[in-house]
Amino acid sequence: MRRTYRLARRLTTQWSAGLSDYDPLREHLSHQTKVEFILSLEEIEDILGFALPRASQRASWWEKERNPENARPQRDAIRDGGYEATRLADGKGVRFRRLSAGRYRPR
After folding, report:
1. What is the residue range of 35's domain?
2. In this structure, are residues 78 and 47 in contact, taking their beta carbons and an 8 Å threshold?
3. Model confidence pLDDT, tens digit, residues 32-54
4. 106 in a structural domain
5. H helices within 17-99, ranges in order?
6. Is residue 12 domain-resident?
7. Taking every annotated instance into account, which residue ranges of this chain make up the domain DUF7662 (predicted)?
8. Among 20, 63, 90, 96, which residue carries the largest CB count within 10 Å?
9. What predicted TM-score, i.e. pTM, was given to this entire model?
10. Does 9 score more than 90 pLDDT?
């Protein structure tokens, strides 16, 4: 019971602070120095600490949204980490490419 209460309190605190499940990915990306690199889906799951949803198999789940009203937390985390993402053709990984200074606007 106590453990459930602590978990609920932590989740409530994270939600009220505006934290996202994808913040670990944002943090990881923000510490990278490479202009471009690839992470496997398994590596991304290790960074996040949970399994990616099935939707992550689709390229559109990773790529930037053209309509800002359709913002997604994973895309926000990637952008806020200073990168854009493209799923590899084989579906087993994601290519991260650093945003140019003019395109990167931290929140």
Report:
1. 20-98
2. no
3. 999 999 999 999 999 999 999 99
4. no
5. 23-30, 41-48, 59-62, 73-80
6. no
7. 22-98
8. 96
9. 0.74
10. no
